[in-house]
Amino acid sequence: MNIPSRKIILVLVVMLGLAVALNCAAAEVKDRVESIGRDASAAKAVNQDARLVVVPIPVSNPTVGVGLTLAGIYMHGKTDAKEGSPTSTSGVGAMLTSNDSWLLGAFHDGYYFDDAMRLRLAGGYGELQLKYYGTGNDSPLQDNPLEFGATSTVFTPRLLFELPYENFFLGLEYLYVGIENAPDPSGPSVDLPEFSFRTETAGLGLVGVYDSRDSNIWPAAGTLLEATATNYGGHFGGDYHYNKGVVKFTQYHRIVDPLVVVYRLDGQFIGGDAPFWDLAQINLRGFPFGRYLDKHSATAQAEIRWRVFENWTLTAFGGGGRIAESISDIGSSPTRWAGGAGVRYNIGGDHQLNIGIDVTVADDQVEVYFQVGDWLSN
């Protein structure tokens, strides 16, 4: 079993403590500034409505290694929104990691007109150092993956409208990815067009959502069901013609006040000739991006959250996933297991934005992740 260096884990723990300490200091300064010229009750109301978090966020996962992201996340106020409405968030960030990966990105996740309209905008540009493990359960590259650098541009807007049924939404999503792959010349060669020249994928998808969660940042009760059917092709600005379906189903159950149980089911389905980096894959913490790829995938996982102190939560999680070339073969494919445990700290005040560390075990590999927000809602 491959276990990360104790020094790396120690550095991550120290960085987590630094992020928590800096945020607490920033929150204290913010509270003092807002209190000038206001009475105590007004200052408290402002502090609960909106919150700006600017912190260095450690990065750790088996895809890009260990590094740092400098992020600014703004949680918008909900003064005019109805009670229980989701929190709009905006953010920018810059990432640099130990394997020379870097990324610049920005996003906005907005909820408008008492949650009658939802708008999401996200984009990024950077270079990621990745590995290609091949496709299928018996790929010869699984134990000797091809290393490559991927210079990528990503842009994805989504617009949803509430239906005449409570908690149901319907809308469209556009996805664009432009990528130029540069394989490591010392590694094994792979005859794929994605490694020969710059390629692009672009598609328009129909999105249906059912969302009864009590929070979009750190839920403790409710259901999130999301189904997307996307058509990719030259008519949308891409080089590949294929269809992709994605289904995500997550439920949150508050057993007692400090204890929450979550489970999630995922399915991804490809029809046509998709590039390898947009194939279906197992969606579990513990596996690097692209570890298991094929035309279809299914994943099931569960997580237990126990709030031990006011702002501290312990987690334990686990699950399994399968990939197959056809849906009929999913039932007989081998199951890939992953699991682990972690800790979270709430840096978002009443908005409950949590950051923390997960330690995972998958394929006899121990990995360390740094998490921001609710991973199971992504």
In short:
The chain is mostly beta strands and 378 residues long.
Structure description:
- The chain is mainly β and 378 residues long.
- It has a single domain, classed as Porin, CATH 2.40.160.
- 11% of the residues lie in helices and 53% in strands.
- It contains 2 helices and 18 strands.
- The protein has helices at 6-35, 40-49; strands at residues 51-61, 65-75, 89-97, 102-112, 117-132, 146-162, 168-183, 199-211, 222-232, 242-256, 259-272, 280-281, 293-294, 296-307, 312-324, 336-346, 354-362, 365-372.
- The strands form 2 sheets. Strands 1-2-3-4-5-6-7-8-9-10-11-14-15-16-17-18 form a 16-stranded antiparallel sheet. A two-stranded antiparallel sheet has the order 12-13.
- α1 crosses α2.
Multimer state: single chain
Could you tell me the radius of gyration in angstroms? 21 Å
Number of strands: 18
Estimate percent helicity: 10-25%
Order of neighbouring strands in the sheet with most strands:
1-2-3-4-5-6-7-8-9-10-11-14-15-16-17-18
- From the spread of the alpha carbons, the general shape counts as globular
CATH class: Mainly Beta
Structural class: mainly beta
Please, how many helices?
2
Within the CATH hierarchy, at the fold level, what is the topology? Answer: Porin
Q: CATH homologous superfamily - what is it?
A: membrane protein fhac: a member of the omp85/tpsb transporter family
Query: Which regions contain 5 or more consecutive residues with pLDDT less than 50?
Result: 6-11, 32-47
Specify the biggest β-sheet. 16 strands, antiparallel
Q: How many distinct folded domains? A: 1
SSE string, helix = H, strand = E?
Answer: HHEEEEEEEEEEEEEEEEEE
